[in-house]
Design the sequence.
């Protein structure tokens, strides 16, 4: 499975279905949160948009998990968001509020949404970068080290709002950038790969047969990150896990 110029160890876990994927992701969230709070007194996580993370969210606010998380010590950011108001149906922040955050006792001051009320996407990205740098007390040129980055993947191999052949793929020094996606005719705000790859743990949550071909190409195909941006995700000194359901894994080469 390892070909191209991948230079980081990847783990792949195939779950029976989306519900099982959600439970496995929730177990990971609880474990990493406990470790981070014990070692540094807080847990920093960047959430993802899309449908698959809802399976994680539904588990985390369930009776089985809700009380296992010290929510007052959890600090939530977003790996990307659309340049839309927070109450817009397409808002990743709005989705997370509705499916998780409004149902757990997390303090409002622990939530750091992308400030999409700014006058344009570029100023929203600049402001969010300032917020992230302030939280992590970063010096110029430094990148944040999130305890957990939750990522999704599109049918075209994109992740966060880092789409194939878009300008944001080339950004190496910034933490957050605005990215205009021509095929969607939409502005996005996204963490850069430089920021994502400083995370201590990155987990992809991928479900559904529509993702099967892209997942095979990302994991087993040649290294073409401009076409398959998810291949750029290679955390430095961190861990990388692909947590997928059987439908998404349907085209992968069977493993012994």
Sequence:
């Amino acid at each position: 499975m390892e070909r191209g110029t991948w230079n980081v160890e990847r783990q792949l876990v195939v779950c029976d279905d989306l519900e099982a994927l959600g439970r496995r992701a929730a177990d990971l969230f609880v474990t990493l949160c406990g470790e981070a709070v014990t070692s540094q007194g807080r847990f920093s996580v960047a959430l993802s948009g899309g449908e698959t993370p809802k399976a994680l969210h539904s588990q985390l606010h369930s009776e089985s998990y809700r009380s296992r998380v010290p929510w007052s010590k959890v600090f939530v950011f977003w790996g990307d968001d659309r340049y839309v108001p927070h109450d817009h149906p397409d808002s990743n922040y709005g989705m997370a509020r509705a499916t998780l955050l409004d149902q757990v006792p997390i303090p409002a001051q622990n939530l750091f949404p992308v400030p999409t009320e700014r006058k344009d996407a570029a100023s929203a990205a600049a402001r969010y970068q300032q917020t992230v740098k302030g939280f992590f007390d970063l010096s110029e040129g430094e990148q944040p080290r999130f305890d957990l980055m939750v990522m999704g993947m599109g049918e075209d191999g994109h992740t966060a709002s880092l789409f194939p052949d878009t300008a944001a793929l080339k950004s190496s020094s910034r933490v957050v950038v605005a990215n205009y996606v021509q095929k969607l005719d939409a502005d996005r705000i996204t963490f850069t790969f430089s920021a994502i790859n400083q995370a201590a743990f990155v987990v992809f949550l991928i479900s559904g047969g529509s993702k099967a071909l892209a997942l095979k190409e990302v994991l087993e195909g040649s290294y073409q990150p401009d076409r398959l941006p998810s291949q750029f995700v290679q955390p430095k000194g961190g861990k990388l896990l692909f947590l997928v359901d059987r439908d998404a894994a349907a085209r992968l080469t069977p493993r012994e």
About this structure: The chain has a mean pLDDT of 95. The radius of gyration is 17 Å.
